């Protein structure tokens, strides 16, 4: 199939990962198959240890798979295919907010003017104009995660991989960042794969939620989140569809978590 004909952005087929260890090998994920469309926002939820991070690390190219196939359509080879945002803030402590966001663009050797334009745009988007020349140690946890997100978007990847980026934040900061993330995503048409422990967060953010189960770590179900956008946390939580999805997803996870 030619790239233009493919109706997926990411296609995973019978993916498996076994970690070898001297005592006992661990099967982290087994027989994972899924397709993600261009521009889709998907969340993956599942109990601790079910293999979410392993799956994301394979997608990100940080880990080798053991079995199966992963196909990702890279449309514009001039631009990076993917960028990852991790749970802990991973910005450079010795660089200012501005330099952190500009870093990936400098690596790509974009013209200086262009770098400034893009960097200013994202500094504004994440509400850190007053902190552009601050260093990470002068920022709160939420502000640092904002910088990570801005940095990931600034390099303009086709796919964003996010591994529990908000799990270390308090609830109010999490709401704020979720909203900002959706706002930026809505204007960029990027494909996002987002891992979270939180069913609320998964439903609020995504077009589709994949639920993973453990032993073996595999996809046990997927749910279409047909709640209209733009969304607000208040409206989503009050909607009947939210309650219904929450009940169904929790129903699946409950037995494992308990
Ligand atoms: N480098 C490694 N070597 C050996 N085993 C590993 C390695 N990385 C992960 N595992 C094992 O693979 C399984 C899946 O781990 P993974 O971190 O992907 O789960 P997770 O769903 O992301 O967990 P959590 O939600 O707690 O972050 C676990 O049993 C874990 O111990």
Index terms:
258 residues; alpha/beta; Rossmann fold; 6-stranded mixed beta sheet; 3-stranded antiparallel beta sheet; 8 helices; binds adenosine-5'-triphosphate; translocase; ATP hydrolysis activity
Summarize it:
This is ABC transporter-like protein. This protein is of the alpha/beta class and 258 residues long.
Fold blueprint:
Elements: E1 10-19, E2 26-36, E3 41-45, H1 52-60, E4 67-72, E5 82-85, H2 97-107, H3 112-125, H4 141-154, E6 159-163, H5 171-186, E7 191-196, H6 199-205, E8 208-213, E9 218-224, H7 233-238, H8 240-257
Parallel strand pairs: 3-7, 3-8, 5-6, 6-7
Antiparallel strand pairs: 1-2, 1-4, 8-9
Bound molecules: adenosine-5'-triphosphate.
Residues 19, 21, 26, 28, 46, 48-54, 217 line the site of adenosine-5'-triphosphate (ATP).
CATH topology annotation of the largest domain: Rossmann fold
Question: Which spans of ≥5 residues are poorly predicted at pLDDT below 50?
Answer: none
Helical element count? 8
Rounded mean pLDDT score: 93
CATH superfamily of the largest domain: P-loop containing nucleotide triphosphate hydrolases
Determine and state the CATH class of the largest domain: Alpha Beta
Small molecules (ligands, ions, cofactors) in the structure: adenosine-5'-triphosphate
**N-to-C order of helices and strands:** EEEHEEHHHEHEHEEHH
How many discrete domains?
2
Amino- and carboxy-terminal Cα gap: 44 Å
Number of beta-strand segments: 9
Lateral arrangement of strands in the main beta sheet: 5-6-7-3-8-9
Q: Estimate what percentage of residues fall within beta strands.
A: 15-25%
Please bin the fraction of helical residues.
25-40%
Largest sheet: 6 strands, mixed
State the secondary-structure class. alpha/beta
Backbone shape:
globular
Q: How does CATH name the architecture of the largest domain?
A: 3-Layer(aba) Sandwich
Radius of gyration: 19 Å
Keywords: ATP-binding, Nucleotide-binding, Translocase, Transport
Domain ABC transporter: 10-239
Protein name: ABC transporter-like protein
InterPro entries: AAA+_ATPase, ABC_transporter-like_ATP-bd, ABC_transporter-like_CS, ABC_transporter_ATP-bind, P-loop_NTPase
């Amino acid at each position: 199939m030619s790239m233009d004909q493919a109706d997926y952005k990411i296609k995973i087929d019978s993916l498996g990962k076994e970690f070898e260890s001297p005592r006992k090998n661990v099967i982290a994920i087994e027989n994972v198959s899924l397709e993600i469309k261009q521009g889709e926002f998907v969340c993956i939820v599942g109990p601790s240890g079910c293999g979410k991070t392993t799956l994301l690390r394979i997608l990100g190219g940080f880990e080798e798979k053991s079995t199966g196939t992963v196909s990702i359509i890279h449309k514009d080879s001039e631009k990076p295919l993917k960028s990852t945002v991790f749970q802990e803030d991973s910005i450079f402590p010795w660089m200012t907010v501005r330099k952190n966001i500009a870093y990936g663009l400098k690596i790509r050797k974009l013209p200086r003017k262009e770098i400034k334009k893009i960097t200013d745009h994202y500094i504004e988007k994440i509400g850190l104009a007053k902190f552009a020349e601050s260093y990470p140690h002068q920022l709160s946890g939420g502000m640092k995660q904002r910088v990570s997100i801005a940095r990931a978007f600034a390099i303009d990847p086709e796919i964003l991989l996010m591994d529990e980026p908000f799990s270390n934040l308090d609830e109010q900061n999490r709401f704020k960042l979720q909203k900002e993330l959706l706002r930026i995503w809505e204007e960029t048409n990027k494909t996002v794969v987002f891992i979270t422990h939180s069913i609320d967060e998964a439903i609020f953010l995504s077009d589709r939620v994949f639920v993973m189960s453990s032993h073996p770590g595999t996809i046990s179900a997927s749910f279409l989140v047909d709640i209209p956008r733009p969304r607000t946390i208040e409206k989503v939580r009050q909607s009947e569809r939210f309650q219904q999805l929450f009940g169904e997803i929790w129903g699946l996870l409950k037995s494992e978590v308990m």
